[in-house]
Design a protein that fits this description.
This protein is mostly beta strands. The chain has 3 helices and 28 strands. Strands 11-12-13-14-28-24-23-18-21 form a 9-stranded antiparallel beta sheet. It has a 6-stranded antiparallel beta sheet with strand order 17-26-25-22-19-20, with no helix packed on it.
Length: 344
């Protein structure tokens, strides 16, 4: 059995302080690299059907390239993932204003959100796994959010080649919390596109958006639409110019950039959300989560990666019909997502 865990220096942060990169390993050759900057997933390497190990995420391996990371490659996103309409929300009668960093909207916690912050890191190793516990305190007013928020993110890579992200948070004043992991996957390797990937999403409904990517507030059935991914579907068959042009929602997003409403009851145990299979390499990815939604993002062309962001719904504080993301003192935010890697 190789060493499950190692750590190394990983360049300098914008303030000149050193970053650390932690490498987690399994006996089959799966490796996951996590940084204390941005709680980033910098790299995931897994076997294909022939046993060859290769990178399955898109992004860069240089620390300096993450100093400006507007696409949130590999990042842990917060305080609130996805969009908040027009950069403001009202909580307990008080309106709070956030930076607008996505056209007219706030997205992914702002320009200096969690993906641009240093985290305290504590690596650990057990007889069956290795991992890193990342913690930080987001001060009251950070990026406009009220309340001091204490966050703990635990990445665990187990011997069964599954990576679990366990998220916890508490606050000293009412605030909003909606965290997600923003890795871009390509199971055939970073030089390919994902058009041959087969995707299944366990969702009977999705959230349509306006031209700016903000949910309209509607919850629409996937029946009879290109958003019906309940059976494994080749992405390339849904992302042709003809299919995109024929569907107003796909046209607006140049593909998929939509939150799917997962067909499962609330549970503290992760439930099946999505599966991805890459016939060329044979690699598979299965996503399990406790979250009610998953944002499927295929990029705006040429579809070189697929993001599967487990989360609550976008613009939830401004949409009374969406599940609440308000966290109050005395409560605990908890979320768990599991990424299972395989090959066949």
């Amino acid at each position: 059995m190789p060493d499950r865990l190692s750590a190394e220096s990983w360049g300098l942060l914008p303030d000149g302080s050193p970053a650390t990169l932690f490498t987690l390993r399994t006996a089959r050759g799966t490796t996951v690299q996590v940084s204390d900057f941005g709680a980033l997933l910098v790299s995931i390497q897994t076997e294909d059907r022939d046993g060859a190990v290769a990178e399955i995420t898109r992004g860069t391996r240089r620390c300096a390239d993450y100093h400006h990371n507007p696409a949130c490659f590999g990042a842990l996103v917060g305080r609130v993932a996805n969009r908040i309409g027009h950069g403001h929300f009202t909580l307990d009668g008080q309106t709070h204003y956030l930076v607008c960093n996505n056209g007219p909207h706030h997205i992914h916690g702002g320009t200096q959100g969690f993906h641009q912050q240093r985290w305290n890191a504590e690596p650990f190793e057990t007889s069956t796994s290795s991992g890193v516990v990342l913690t930080r305190t987001s001060p009251d007013g950070e990026e406009g959010y009220p309340g001091t928020l204490a966050i703990r993110a635990t990445y665990t890579l187990a011997d069964d080649d599954a990576l679990t992200l366990d998220l916890r948070a508490t606050t000293d004043a009412p605030t909003l919390v909606n965290l997600t992991q923003h890795t871009y996957f390509n199971l055939d390797g970073p030089d390919a596109d994902v058009l041959d990937h087969h995707l299944a999403v366990r969702a009977d409904a999705y959230l349509p958006t306006d031209a700016t990517g903000l949910p309209t507030g509607e919850v629409c059935s996937v029946d009879g639409s290109p958003f019906d991914l309940r059976a494994a579907t080749r992405l390339g068959d849904r992302l042709t110019a003809e299919v995109i042009a024929a569907d107003a929602q796909l046209t607006l997003a140049h593909g998929y950039d939509h939150n799917f409403v997962l067909a499962m009851a609330p549970s503290e145990t992760p439930q099946l959300a999505a599966t991805v299979t890459a016939p060329t390499s044979g690699r598979t990815l299965t996503v399990w989560t406790t979250e009610p939604g998953i944002q499927v993002f295929t990029g705006h062309g040429p579809h070189q990666a697929l993001a599967l962001e487990t989360q609550h719904f976008p613009d939830a504080p401004n949409q009374p019909g969406f599940p609440s993301i308000v966290l109050r003192p005395g409560e605990a935010f908890a979320s768990k997502t599991r990424f299972e890697f395989g090959a066949r």
